[in-house]
Amino acid sequence: MAGESHYQEALRALTDTDGATEVRLEVEAVLVPEPTNPHDPNAVMVQVGGLLVGYLPRQSAVAYGPMIAAVAARSRAAACEAMIAARGGETSALGVFLRLPKPGDEAGTPPPRGAF
Questions:
Q1: Stretch 85-114: mean pLDDT, rounded?
Q2: Label partner for 68 (CA 20 to 30 A): which of 47, 84, 90, 102?
Q3: Average confidence (pLDDT) over 70-74
Q4: CA 53 to mean position of chain CA atoms
Q5: SS (H, E, C) 53-100
Q6: What angle do CA 1, 82, 108 make, to 5 degrees?
Q7: Which helix (H) or strand (E) element contains residue 8?
Q8: Residues 41-69: tens digit of each pLDDT
């Protein structure tokens, strides 16, 4: 994930915490292509609960683009399991960890459960 530092308010709302305590919240993340992004036409937003929480890193957006496009072509949203987590402490920021199949995996088989 990239850019979570810019979306701490959304992450705090989703976890109902300020990040000062340890957090581990399993959620579903939706991957949304953003071809009109002025910084990167391959950009892929990551949303949780309808809120933007970050982006796939550029290299990952390119690698996963075909898989996300194939899902979108079937009028479905590309989604994956994710975890919002923080270590806790005064300066702890919330982060998002995605559970994605290998790029190009036609079947879209997720990694084994508990891979976080």
A1: 73
A2: 84
A3: 86
A4: 7
A5: EEECCHHHHHHHHHHHHHHHHCCCCEEEEEEEEECCCCCCCCEEEEEC
A6: 95
A7: helix 8-15
A8: 999 999 999 999 999 999 999 999 888 88
Beta carbons of 90 and 4 less than 8 angstroms apart: no
> How far apart (Å, rounded) are the C-alpha atoms in residues 20 and 17?
7
Kind plus residue range of the DSSP H or E element containing 29: strand 23-33
- pLDDT for the residue 115: 45
- pTM, two decimals, is 0.83
Contact partners, residue 112, CB within 8 Å, separation at least 6: none
The answer to whether residues 64 and 80 touch, using CB atoms and an 8 Å cutoff, is no
